[in-house]
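@channel sequence for tomorrow's demo:
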Amino acid sequence: MAADTYVYIIGTDTTGEWYNILYEMTGWMDKDFIEQDNTDNDYDGELTTNSAMLYNDQKKTRRLVSDLKAGTKFNILEQQENMFRIQAVVEGWASAKYIAKI
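structure tokens (generated this afternoon):
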């Protein structure tokens, strides 16, 4: 994550040294792993596999995250060839020393 990224703290480990966080992430994913949702709800798509990778660009130059789970909902921002640029809320762990509570 970049500095000044806003996150939601949803828990801590038993030592208090790590926070379980939620944060928004934007990246590119193969369309084969996406089921589009054309209803009027809050999201445009849903992940259909546990093995999808999110990349920083459509050429798959750098992997951003690999632990998105099937059922993760997201908004589709654009499509280029066989890749969708999506925005999803991601859950993960971060060291408490890098998180400033506000």
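heads up for whoever presents: The chain has a mean pLDDT of 87.
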